[in-house]
Design brief:
Layout (H helix, E strand, L loop, with lengths): L1 H8 L14 E2 L1 H14 L11 E6 L3 E3 L2 E3 L1 E5 L2 H6 L5 E6 H4 L4 H12 L2 E4 L2 E4 L8 H7 L1 H39 L1
Parallel strand pairs: 2-6
Antiparallel strand pairs: 1-2, 3-4, 5-6, 7-8
Length: 181
């Protein structure tokens, strides 16, 4: 099963020309990963991937001075009154996600899903155990999880610097064109 999933994930991330400027639906890829995690990781066996809206994000989140790839939002009761299809929204920074290998995507998704807790039939958002979820670290190995977190922070920093450079170059090109006219 895992080999089949890894093969499917190799080309599952959509290709976006240029920088992603707005949120983009990610259900096709990420729900497939979340379903695999629910079936194969005991510590996340209670999650309901169909109750999570997955989105690619145009920017990463910073937490404790480091970039993280995913952000989990618990939808309020008022939001659910408008549309009760989802309990959570999970966003993932597209620029870095698209470059992860399939195994890294599974580990990152598992870590994000560790933020969901079910207590007495109610779902709620759970705070991480000191910036990493212990169940995720125990399952995949602390060294591997920490290494991926460091790689993600560096990749997010690089991606954001590249976006700034691209914007600066585009502005300079527009300024140069306006001087020529």
């Amino acid at each position: 099963m895992k080999e089949d999933l890894l093969a499917k994930l190799k080309n599952a991330t959509p290709v976006v020309a240029g920088d992603l400027e707005t949120y983009l639906d990610a259900d096709d890829e990420m729900q497939m990963i979340a379903d695999y995690i629910r079936k194969n990781n005991e510590h996340n066996s209670y999650i309901q991937p169909e109750r999570i809206k997955f989105l690619y994000s145009p920017k990463p989140k910073k937490d404790g001075g480091k970039f993280i790839l995913t952000e989990l939002f618990k939808r309020s009761d008022m939001e659910k009154m408008v549309n009760d299809q989802y309990d959570f929204i999970l966003t993932c920074f597209y620029d870095v996600w698209k470059n992860l290998d399939p195994e890294q995507k599974i580990i990152v998704m598992d870590k994000a899903l560790c933020g969901i807790e079910v207590v007495e039939e109610k779902t709620k958002k759970k705070a991480p155990d000191s910036k990493e979820y212990l169940n995720n670290m125990h399952f995949y190995g602390a060294e591997k999880v920490m290494r991926i977190s460091e790689q993600i922070d560096l990749a997010c920093t690089t991606a954001m610097e590249q976006r700034k450079e691209n914007a600066k170059n585009a502005k300079e090109a527009v300024d140069a064109n306006s001087l020529d006219n």
